[in-house]
Amino acid sequence: MTNNLEKHIKALTPEIENTSKSWKLLFAVFLSFFALGIFGLITQITKGHIVTGMRDNVVWGLYIVNFIFFMGLSYAGALISGVLHLFKAEWRKPIIRITELTTVISLFIGPVFILFCIGRLDRLGYLILYPRIQSPITWDVIAISTDIVGCLIFLYLSFIQDFAKLRDFDGLKVSPSRKKIYKTLALGYYDTPSQRHIIEFSKNVMAAMIIAIAIIVYSVLAWIFGVTLQPGWHSTIFGPYFVIAAVYSGTGVVIILMWIFRKVYHLEEYITKKHFINVGVLLLVVAAFYGYFTFSDYLTKWYGSVRMDKILIDKLFSDFYWLFIFSNYIGIIVPLIVVGFPRLRTIRNISIAAVIALLGLWVNRYLIVIPTLETPYLPIQDIRPAWNLYKPTWVELSLTGAGVSVFCMLFMLASKIVPIVSISEIVDESEDTNDEILLSE
Amino acid sequence: MSKNKNSRRDFLKLGLLAGGTLVTGSMIKTALSETPENDPGSNIKVLTPDGKLVEISKASIKAGKEYVSPKASHQGIPHRKFVMVIDLSRCKNARKCVEACKVGHHLPSDHEWMKVYLMQDSSKQSPYWFPRPCFHCDSPMCASVCPVGATYKRSDGIVLIDSGRCIGCKFCMTGCPYSVRVFNWKDPEVSEEDKKVKYSPETGIPQVEGTVGKCIFCADLLRKNELPRCVQACPMGVIFFGDIIEDTVTNGTDTIPFSQLVKDRSAFRYLEQLGTEPSVYYLPPTERLFPFESGLDDLDKKVLARYKNTPYMKNQKKLKNDK
Fold this sequence. Notes:
The complex is a heterodimer of chains A (441) and B (323).
Chain A: H1 2-12, H2 21-47, H3 62-73, H4 75-86, H5 93-116, H6 126-129, H7 136-168, H8 176-185, H9 193-226, H10 238-265, H11 273-304, H12 307-316, H13 321-340, H14 347-373, H15 394-417, H16 423-432, H17 436-440
Helix pairs in contact in A: 2-15, 3-5, 3-10, 3-14, 4-5, 4-9, 4-10, 5-7, 5-10, 5-15, 7-8, 7-9, 9-10, 10-11, 10-14, 11-13, 11-14, 13-14
Chain B: H1 2-18, H2 28-32, E1 43-47, E2 53-57, H3 58-63, E3 82-87, H4 96-104, E4 115-119, E5 128-132, H5 141-145, E6 151-153, E7 159-161, H6 171-175, E8 182-183, H7 192-196, E9 212-213, H8 219-223, H9 229-233, E10 239-243, E11 248-250, E12 255-257, H10 258-264, E13 280-283, H11 301-306, H12 311-322
Parallel strand pairs in B: 3-13
Antiparallel strand pairs in B: 1-2, 3-10, 4-5, 6-7, 8-9, 10-11, 11-12
């Protein structure tokens, strides 16, 4: 039993005791991307937003695209840990830590992108000092901050038992101060039946809550677009469409992260083909829904041929042709085929499908934001021809790169501090077979 | 009522006399009542109502007399509801409204609050010039979506922006279906004099980097019972301005009951179906005073280039090439 625990802890905390060379190297690479982003940000703050590709027509660019995208990734936690937790799907246990971390990390990165888009960062406090509840942005501020708090609580609840295990496990060679931190964070948890009951109950409540909150957050985000009168945005379907798209990206990113963690930390024993197929099937189901929503949205716009919608669709199928094909055809059909045919269901195939789905979804966000802004009711007749169409500049690209880098870096840092797979859940699972009576109390 | 009429007559005189000068005639009286400051370099020549050419300090013109604080600017002028009627049959893209607006509001060189669009509803319909100020909607999307109340609708119908409150989220710009709003993407190059001017949302001076600007119906002039700059500047009398409660509009030359003008000339509002309830009405471009093409004459190359991508210009180019 102790040996078992030791084995688990050692395997699941590969970076806690010492830091490998490749870890440092990779971290340095991401850090340099991050530094480039900081340089871009400083340029933007000193020279003004003129250094971005955003102009009077396309007032929102890559920043908003990334904002929606990262907020979508946060669905990983809401869906997989939340829903699967409520349905008590046992197979989820090795991957919930990854999903919960994804949620919290992307929830911190997403809103930062919206800050880059704000002209007067020094007045950010006005959102709280002079809020107007009628504005969807205020809804967003409330929803996102609630979501962050909720997801942090949910994440922490799942950590408490692990912190207790790390505190009590003497085989872990870390500094006493680190041990002390684990002790503090474990909040005096000693796995008594009543403590266990409280924590399980809290997890259930929080799982249900973060699902609801996540749906609200993403709907509100969609309504920022939906409530306006712009062609392509003014759509009643946008709320649920965005929610489904977010679940899609969340599922995709979990598969990719599973693949990376499995390879990097040699978790073949914990994350098996079964997990890939199970999450893959989720991806398939969501892909079908997402494809259906996309189709309904564009079909009605195209068939009704309202003037502005027609101009927009024409634009999508000319200037944005390949992006549209990649995002809304390939990005949906590939996962359907790969997971749909059992013969194709290999870990590698499913992971590739997830990458395509994720990239396709990012492009889909781009195609929602930019072409609409390039298609205003009044034709663009700007005195500055370079201002007509949107083209991201290096500043926006560098900050996008920095966002992705921070996402990876935070995962790497997390792997240094906490177990990357929930030890308590895994140990419980292996105990389940022997001590069923004990657990049922 | 009679007082208003008199002031309109003043406009008329001023408008005719001031002619093509960039000065907003309305302010001359204010300026003249002060002792002209001897500040060479910032002086400006203006015509007085009685035809004399005098030199006065620029600062005395733009500062105006009564300062309206951002807070006070939330209050509309009592018992007023402003309305604008733009007669498309008279517009020949003289662009005087654009210039007067730019100069009057001290806008950065590439900013335009008033724009003149080349419009053609379909290839079989004739093209026309379409001056577009802010529509000051009665159901303004921009004001609805603003998260901090930096843009607001007043009782007199005017929609203003407080640059001191605006956080630059640009939601109002995506909210406005008429592309009215412009953003200060870079430092607006405010002149030294303007830096000393106390900001008021009714003047929009000075513009602030990272915030949104737009046509404000020259709220500062309206407070003094004077017509907006674009109305005064238009040599064709395209733009009528007035009060819907008084049921009167004037372009500086003709004063007509608003309801009659709207009825007789089948006025319409742009994109009525969006339900934003604009305060700007258009009179259809029928029985034109000028041929459409005259609007393309004597245009600056840069200005001409902006119309390059319109179906009309593309078609013209094609016809030319075919010959």
